[in-house]
Amino acid sequence: MSDRPNPLDGLEEWIDRMNRQLETAARSWESELDNRSHLDLSMGGSSTQLDLADTGAEFVVTVDVPGYETDDLELRVRGETLEISGERDRELFEGDAEGEAAHSAGTYIRRERETRSFSRQVRLPEPVDIDAVTAGVNNGILTVRLPKREPTGDAHEIDIE
């Protein structure tokens, strides 16, 4: 036999080492996703970004909603989940046979603003007082204030059978 080294020597050890590293990386990625999505229950990606802040007495959710009017937005609290959705319709104008939209100032040369919609669901860390929730839109920013539910100090006696 020749004294030349076998090029496959050590290959099995190298593959095992790579498998261990990939498994470690996969666990790390799953952990990051679990932590990041703990409060965000939205399906798929969303271009609408939001902030959730805890001020002590209330949660404040701030959402960028440029171009949306108050009537375009819908808010709902279901259990401990805040659901925010919006749909903005494209302005409809009568057009010609090719579907070119006519504007009061003429025919559009370029039209990029179309129907946009979004839906976000955020799990609230604590129960809120649903009757005291307020919301408003100012300069394209939706602010939702969700006062925390006051903990009841009442004790309830439980009978043991």
From TrEMBL:
Domain of life: Archaea
Domain SHSP span(s) in chain numbering: 41-161
CDD domains membership: ACD_sHsps-like (cd06464)
Cited Pfam families: HSP20 (PF00011)
Gene3D superfamilies linked: 2.60.40.790
Stored InterPro entries: A-crystallin/Hsp20_dom, HSP20-like_chaperone, Small_HSP
Family to which the UniProt record says this protein belongs: Belongs to the small heat shock protein (HSP20) family.
Protein name: Hsp20 family protein
